[in-house]
Amino acid sequence: MQQEQKQAAALKAAEYIRDNMILGLGTGSTAYYLIRRAGELVKEGMRLKAVATSRSSEKLAEEFGIPVTDINEVPRIDLTIDGVDEIDPDFEAVKGGGGALTREKITAYHSKQVIWIMDHRKQVLKLGAFPLPVEVLPFGWRLLSEKIQSLGYTPILRIENGQAYRTDNGNYILDIHSPSPAGYRKLSGLLRSYPGVVETGYFPAVCSRIIVADSAGVRVLENKKRIVSGDL
Ligand SMILES: O=C(CO)[C@H](O)[C@H](O)COP(=O)(O)O
């Protein structure tokens, strides 16, 4: 059911893809369906170029026949479609469950339009249940973690296959439990001021719209403040 909803949201988002677009490809299980659909569009004759937010999405895109370009080689990104881990009614989100938060944030920042796709379980009234992922340099990560702990949070080094998880940038992830009473926006700002913090998974409302699927179907919610009219 959850997978069907993820797929439904992704297929709806694919309707916003146009010929000649430079597409930002998100990361994760919901983005998977989008990448697969974009591959079908290429096979049907649509001319697309993609930049990927992770090596895994790049590999998928290549498998599905989408031409992938280095982000430093593109003049612009027209539309990025990506998943989220949690999103509140103001379109503020937590991302990075898949570890791609820094590339996802850079790609979203430079995109003319951003669509976030999800099943309805990702919608929350207040961010905080999903731990905040923070990408940190391996150098000095332990002292940094202790510093964060001294503020009353519980940073956990992400482990994969018994070893510290490495992002595509070669860094570690600290997943920060115990949400800030002041909220993730403030916590993220503080963390980003610490040496060694590369980026946090708190995303301000950079999306143009979100597409949410539940058992009743698919809803498109527009973020009026972000939308640039006439772009799509
Ligand atoms: O931020 C992400 C990866 O870094 C993903 O977009 C997020 O984790 C959602 O993943 P999924 O679609 O598998 O639930």
TrEMBL record:
Pathway it works in: Carbohydrate degradation; pentose phosphate pathway; D-ribose 5-phosphate from D-ribulose 5-phosphate (non-oxidative stage): step 1/1
InterPro entries, A to Z: NagB/RpiA_transferase-like (IPR037171), Ribose5P_isomerase_typA_subgr (IPR020672), Ribose5P_isomerase_type_A (IPR004788)
UniProt GO cellular component terms: cytosol
Species in which this protein is naturally found: Diplocloster agilis
SUPFAM superfamilies the record matches: D-ribose-5-phosphate isomerase (RpiA), lid domain, NagB/RpiA/CoA transferase-like
Protein function: Catalyzes the reversible conversion of ribose-5-phosphate to ribulose 5-phosphate.
Gene: rpiA
Family under the similarity heading: Belongs to the ribose 5-phosphate isomerase family.
Domain of life assignment: Bacteria
Protein name per the record: Ribose-5-phosphate isomerase A
EC number of this enzyme: 5.3.1.6
Protein residues bound to substrate: T27, G28, S29, T30, D82, G83, V84, D85, K95, G96, G97, G98, K122
Residue ranges crossing the lipid bilayer per the database entry: none
GO BP terms, alphabetized: D-ribose metabolic process; pentose-phosphate shunt, non-oxidative branch
Subunit organization: Homodimer.
Residues of the active site: E104
Class of this enzyme: isomerase
Assigned keywords, A-Z: Isomerase
GO-annotated molecular function: ribose-5-phosphate isomerase activity
PANTHER family, per database record: RIBOSE-5-PHOSPHATE ISOMERASE (PTHR11934:SF0)
Reactions catalysed, as given in the entry: aldehydo-D-ribose 5-phosphate = D-ribulose 5-phosphate
